[in-house]
């Protein structure tokens, strides 16, 4: 079955930092893919993220983000890095329960009249530990462990068809 919705985790999936909620102003832009906060914490977007997000959008794929971070930090970092507009729905919560975040994305789509079956959803996260509850509560969602099941973001494009 064709994938209609791809949901990404953020930390250690889109970029190399493990917790963007730690970042504090002022944030300095080093280049389009790298930032640094005032304490010297750095974040770098992984190679091929922008191209992959762009190609997914071009193919008509709905993009979601489900991240365990403070919502204001997530929005700020995504906007600074010019990644915010790629995502149709962003759910950022201060708890780790990805199955709840994915449910929120699913419900937002339903409110907009967009119906997506679990098998038409791909969820990409760097931590396999989130997958059990996703499958238990949400059904047969295609869960992909970043860096284990796939080695780079470009490989996502081969999995959606």
TrEMBL record:
Gene3D superfamilies: HAD superfamily/HAD-like (3.40.50.1000). Pfam families: Acid_PPase. InterPro entries: HAD-like_sf, HAD_sf, HAD_SF_ppase_IIIC, MDP_1_eu_arc. GO terms for molecular function: acid phosphatase activity. NCBIfam families: HAD-SF-IIIC, MDP-1. This is Magnesium-dependent phosphatase-1. It comes from Acidianus manzaensis.
